[in-house]
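Consider the following input, taken from an annotated entry for 3-hydroxyisobutyryl-CoA hydrolase (Cladocopium goreaui).
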Amino acid sequence: TPSYRADCGTFTRQARHIVAPQVGLNAMVSALGGLKAPWEVSATQKFTPRLSHPPETHRPFSVGRSRAQNMLAVALATQDDQAKVRRLEQALETPCVRYERAQTPRLMQVARDATVLRGELTRKDRKKAWQDKQEKEKKEEKEEKEERKKKSEAHENPKPPPSPEDLLKEEEAAALRIQSLYRGQKDRQTVKAMAAQEAQAATRIQSIYRGQVEEPGRDLAGNGPIRVVVLSPQAREWEEFRCSAVFLRDSVNQGATNKAYMMHKDLLFRRLGGDGFSKLLDEAEVITKKFQARIKKARGFFQTSNGIIWYVNPEGEVKGLTSDGNKIRDRIQVTDDDALQIGPFRLDEDRPCSCIHWIRKDDPEKTWNWSRDNTLRSRVRLGTGERA
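Applying the prediction step yields:
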């Protein structure tokens, strides 16, 4: 009947759509009609509301999905096999990629590629390990053959017994080695003892000759100049309450620190006035320059035979550094008879050599020889306190 044919025609069209269905995002959006898309519906809404505007035909942008796709692209573009496998495994473990249905075929292909590549790397590693083992066995076998060959040759051709001359030479060589070891150890002990003795002597010199400080309290009445300025409270008391005039020696000697020195200058300026203070400083500068010119021969970097490095600056300060890293501090003085002196040692200026010789006052046979040392290594050691 016509109605039957119409039904058949309608069924035929419906069957054609079933065999070749319309799939994809656009088909899903058109099938929704007036409903919102699933990604536009919040989880708190019980029913799917109607659309107030046509639905979007594209999915919203997802940062995680974009990052995962970039990870896959970077992993597939990697040239190194081991790095490629590691990056592929990291990309496949990303949840955004794992649960993305649109990426399922690509992920399956990537997983297969990663499995194949991992198998190839495993086979390469096993092959390399097997080759290394074979090479090691061949090397050991070759060494064993050479050793057996040497033993057989030594058994077939035994060495003749050593002659008395050879035995005597060996004994002499052994005795020489023993003597050199004993002498070297003895010399090292001597050098260490000399260094310790010199360090102790320098300490005694500092304590004896640098420790003789006149008390400023007994000179408040003005009986002569105060030669050494000590603690700041005592120096301030002397500067403020001393009745006599200020001597030139008082302005030449400095305090132990820059702070004390600036305090002395300020007190002297207040007491003497601008003109008197300037005149005193000019006279002190003349004495300082004369002193620097007098000790010119003893200035510079030096080294002694026991490894101690010495440096004498233009102000006459002596800085020493032992081989153990201990520091020595002293000062060169100009005596009343115009001689340079460090503690009990006086400089022998009659010798024309480049070295300088210090002679003990009470025992002229004891000398202290310094040789010039302008190497950068010595200057760095003296500045940093590094051990030899």
